[in-house]
Fold this sequence. Notes:
Elements: H1 6-14, H2 23-31, E1 36-39, H3 46-56, E2 60-64, H4 68-80, E3 85-88, H5 94-106, E4 111-114, H6 122-128, E5 133-138, H7 158-164, E6 170-174, H8 179-188, E7 196-199, E8 207-213, H9 217-228, E9 233-237, H10 241-253, E10 258-261, H11 267-278, E11 284-287, E12 300-305, H12 312-319, E13 329-335, H13 339-349, H14 354-367, E14 380-381, H15 384-390, H16 395-407, E15 411-414, E16 422-424, H17 429-438, H18 440-453, H19 456-459, E17 462-463, H20 466-473, H21 477-489, E18 494-496, E19 503-506, H22 520-542, H23 547-554, H24 567-577, H25 582-595, H26 600-604, H27 612-624
Parallel strand pairs: 1-6, 1-7, 2-4, 2-5, 3-4, 5-6, 8-13, 9-11, 9-12, 10-11, 12-13
Antiparallel strand pairs: 14-19, 15-19, 16-17, 16-18
Adenosine-5'-diphosphate is lined by residues 16, 19-20, 23, 40, 42-48, 296.
Amino acid sequence: MPTDDILLVLRQNWGHQAFRPMQEDIIRSVLAGQDTLALLPTGGGKSICFQVPALARPGLCLVVSPLIALMKDQVENLRKRGIKAEAVYSGMSHQEIDQTLDNCVYGPVKFLYVSPERLLTDMFRARVGRMKVSLLAVDEAHCLSQWGYDFRPPYLQIAALRELLPGVPVIALTATATEQVKLDIVEKLRFGPGHRVFQQSFARPNLSYSALPTEDKLRRLLEVVRGVGADKTSIVYARTRRQTEDTAAYLQQHGLKAAAYHAGLPSDQRTRTQQDWMENRIRCIVATNAFGMGIDKPDVRLVVHLEAPDNLEAYYQEAGRAGRDEKYAFAVLLHGPNDADELRRRTQQTYPPLDTVRRVYQALANFSRTAVGGGELVAFDFDIQQFAETYRIKALDAHNSLRTLAREGFVQLNEAVNTPARVHIPIDHHDLYRFQVANEQHDKLIKSLLRFNGGELFSGFQRISENSLAQHLKLSVLDVRKTLLFLHRSGIIQYQPRQESPQALFTTPRYDADKLPLDQKRLLQARDLARDKTEAVIRYAAGGRCRQQLLLEYFGELDAPACKVCDFCLAEKKARQAPAPAADLRQQLLTLLKATPQTPREVLTHFAPGQATAVTEQLRELVEMGELKYAPDGRLG
Ligand code: ADP
């Protein structure tokens, strides 16, 4: 549907009546073929900025995105609107990736989402040149910068990808970027001359930020939640899984509809809790930062942090989930007397000694049974607790070493995402029929598969439900899986079992741990950067200025006016309305009594009860100075 009527594209596909501020300018820049950087706050409507121009032009839009959950969300959203979208990520089988990429070369696919480490694989490079790519979109573009808070080295490969796509414009999008990160994105993505940068202010006028010092966080939390309204939607961020559960239990005991959410819970429970919260059966979700990405609930009235994240980028994003409907909402950080030191200590720990990092790398190779030189991009199930116990590594060391390895581009850790089982039948009807006749014991299952999914199974991978098959065939789910696996091994079907555990993978061929090329200088730089970011968080919590201004300055907006709604601005306003200082009060009394003489008792009725002492004192002083005199009837004038 090539058209310049982008408003029509928006209305027809999304049903939105108009563009939000800046969306249209961004889209026009992309359509004019200019490399474009779009900085919009969370919830600002970034996806539309690349999806609309992609639909307005023939060809395919390649989207680089760092998180599987985010990709799946977007692909599903597009498909719901009848737009063909595909995704390629680790955890998919070689065949499935192969087929998806083929669809993008030969089929009418409009959007292909890829994780960055796929970009330079041979399989991808061989195909991408043959796809009719019209636009390259780089989502969460701050991941490309070492100065950002979430550096993903594979993002740097996008520059090389651009060489395979000459003349294709790029649009980079992010919700957080400091000046340094902006410059980095433009440079590392090799933006062409005439490129455009659009930045919407990150100010959130309807969001009241506060940071409350407290020695009893749970009690304070309860007060805050009740203060905003126990029947309102809220998110409480905690740092550990344990803390989410304890806090949710505490809130429940006090009669609130609260529930815990973290990556360690079974996936169906997580889905249910999230659903209950989305549909207002649960009002307060107490979560680790695993919760929130890709969630779009407009009426969140309150986001509380029981502990500060270690950088303001993360804080801004998480707090920013409040008040997306642009109505008044609150972002509250609770901080205890030792929090600043604790935060510093944690940041320090995030950078374990290099020996530990190497030891963890070696353990990971043993855990996954990966030989030197092998294992590149092959995902394996990875339970960090089990890993740490097996190799007697302290959980914290394991966690931080793996983070270092991920940041340096040697391994990747994927959050648990629930991927349903999928099946494709690669042979034709006749061959399948012959197999069914010869293997009667499997006939029923194959028939059920076809009955549930139809002929689509022959053209590509389809989601199947192992549970429904088991119910229908009166077998256990385990038996169904075994049979599917058998058929897979026999080449009759291609079967991707359901996945729901976190995964890890090596992003390079595995090194000998001793020869792992860790860049000491860069690691030290990263540590210093992390330390600076932590100090910025501590300054934010300490306050002393408008909190919105503090945040905006961090993101390079230096001239933002005071927000008037944060705790600091409100306290200032209150101070201004407080009892007038002595000189003002004296003037006020003189004006009042020169106009209408009255008794001290009558004078007091003009003032708030709290001011009585000050008023009486000023009256006495004015009489002593001779400015006021008593009349015989007791009135002052
Ligand atoms: P971001 O990625 O910037 O956080 P999204 O692209 O997810 O934001 O958009 C946030 C929400 O705003 C979505 O529900 C989206 O449908 C909605 N939205 C985006 N653009 C518009 C628009 N022009 N009019 C109305 N709603 C919009």
